[in-house]
Amino acid sequence: MPKINENYLNLKESYLFTEINHRVAEYTKNHPDKKVIRLGIGDVTRPLASNVINALHEGVDAMASAQTFKGYGPEQGYEFLRDAVAKYYESHGVSVDPGDIFISDGAKSDTGNITDIFGDDNVILIPDPVYPVYVDSNIMCGRKITYISGTAENGFLPLPDKNIHADLIYICSPNNPTGAVYNREQLKAWVDYALENEAVILFDAAYEAFISDPELPRSIFAIEGAKKCAIEFCSLSKTAGFTGTRCGYTIVPKELVFKASDGREVSLNAFWNRRQTTKFNGTSYIIQKGASAVFTEEGMAQCMENIAYYKENARIICDVFAKKGIRYFGGEHSPYIWFECPNGMDSWEFFDYLLNNAQVVGTPGAGFGENGQHFFRLTGFGTRENTMEAMERIEKLL
Ligand code: MLT
After folding, report:
1. 176 CB less than 6 Å from ligand 1?
2. Which residues bind pyridoxal 5'-phosphate (predicted)?
3. Does residue 108's CB lie within 6 angstroms of at least one atom of ligand 1?
């Protein structure tokens, strides 16, 4: 009999969004006449930009002829896309070596897979509340997790505590679920802490395109010293509507060098490369062709129009909470609005209340950690019509 990975027994029975889908499916089965509006999972609703569609078609056509056909591509991604990503960073004043960029099928996979290149006896620091993949993927390896508290009092932006030592630190900014964004000074505090502790920051920048204030850093590499202590994950899911198309990238600077227990110098870039070349065969050529169009002037302009649409939805949501005197966070540099559940309800109780009485689906804060017990998340990724209708229903209900 094989020894199974019993760490899985320490996970919650199902992944957050699986549990939500299950409850919604049950409700719709029993109330087939009701129109349910989903503002739960952060899934986009706008179609892909037209020049991304054109590039995808070109990718398909290339596969139809022997002269342009592509088989296995480089596991790290095609040079044309790695270069385009590096130029995108440059346009925000951040210099990144294309050789440090690894193209993938999204940030969810990479933030989960990165556990492969670190040992199991590290102290992992994870903010609470946060995107559940960081916690679950470390529980799967049986690792010790230390939580740092994001609360209304610190604006859901916890800062390092010098009395706690950590080896790996997860940061998501703009934050999922709270929408809070670290400023330069706060991120510098994290970089200084990581350098002092010889720790690595695992920085999730999946929502960077929602930042409209040029003073707010869109990348950890905007902070001096970060290349010696950080890995960054990003995704086209939210930037360009690739949730179903799947493309992302991870930046592992060659400056990230640590000592192995036998004294050898180890490059995390080389380790990640070794991991990817063994376990991953690269993102499909067609998808990478489409992704490269995102980074053209026209493609980016089209993507930003969609982001403006989602941010307008977020504003519509925030306005109702402001009018109702409900304390909320986010929604400005983020598609997410994080608010306090009314009347002291806990977040799953409020989930059921909202589903049963307004037929609106959101995400219970408890799914993102203990500190989310009395909070709830709505997303601006719905259609305008559904967002307006959902908020009219919520306004009447609360
Ligand atoms: C979310 O709703 O938190 C995100 O859509 C999840 C994800 O990006 O995987």
Report:
1. yes
2. 72, 107-108, 131, 176, 207, 235-237, 246, 281
3. yes
